[in-house]
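sorry to bug you again but im stuck and you know this stuff better than me. what follows is a protein written twice so to speak, once as letters and once as structure tokens for the fold. mainly i need to know what kind of three dimensional shape the backbone takes. anything you notice is useful, everything is just below:
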Amino acid sequence: MKLHSMWQDYPDLAKQLTTTLHLMEDVVKLKNKKVESAVLDMIHAGGKLLRPAYQLLFAQFGPDQDEKKATALAASIEMLHTATLIHDDIVDESELRRGLPTIRSTFGNDTAVYAGDYLFICCFKLLSDYSTSLKSLQLNSRSMEKILDGELGQMDDRYKLDQTVDEYLENISGKTAELFALSCSVGAFESGNSERFAKKAGLIGQNIGIAFQIMDDLLDYQADAATLGKPVLEDVRQGVYSLPLIYALNQDNSQLRPYLEKQKHMTAEDTLKVQQLVTESGGVDYAKQLATEYTEQALKDIRKLPENYFNTKENLERLTTQILTRKS
């Protein structure tokens, strides 16, 4: 079991994340051992574990330091995230995830649906075992609703050439940012902090999540397929338009429209041309600037957090800055 190399700079957090992965392994027990193996392979396929990391970091601010509970809740967050990825792959008909065949491409959509549903059950089983009140269960259920709203919004906007930046931000606020917000708020609340503090933590997570998703979208225009672990601009073929492309379309869609109207029939040459046109239109620069603004707001609020002997503020600031400069 190997963590992403980024955690070498956070040795204490790396130990907790390793424990989190072990716990996830222990919880995943399926009668169908091939599917169980595929779920475990996905869990260990090189994900960055950012969401459980933020959950664990915000847990350090509370008066109730219970590492077993913190790692269990971190595991529940990552299992929820993994479940949404499996379901995403079904909707997007994805063949690869993190450079490996997706569960749907290996076992079919039916099995993938059940695998994702099973991880939702695992998530709530851990929550029910370790949450001190119904508040965390309420937060999770509300977050799942917002995540679904974001997914449905993105689905409604497929192949929409006049999509606005505000519509994009609304979709990713649910689809991606909500899980970051949940990680931070649950970490803060379940370690004994007030609901007010947990809400502040959630707002920080929301801004981090938006910046993360914008940067994820930018990588499609700055990285190659080997680095991404999936075909470049595959989302565009599926009609999922991200911020750089939306910005370019809002400037002038006359050159992009002929390529995008091919939809799933876009060729590799078509996607390269779309990359070029989006970059030339300023879409990449605009997205980078917006990601910077959301990151800076998160950093501003992190610097207002209380000091503690874990140096949590410094670690949060360093980790959040890393997200903006990542290459994969």
Q: What stands out?
A: The longest strand covers residues 96-97. Residues 22 and 251 are 49 Å apart (CA to CA). The first helix runs from residue 11 to 27. The chain has a mean pLDDT of 89.
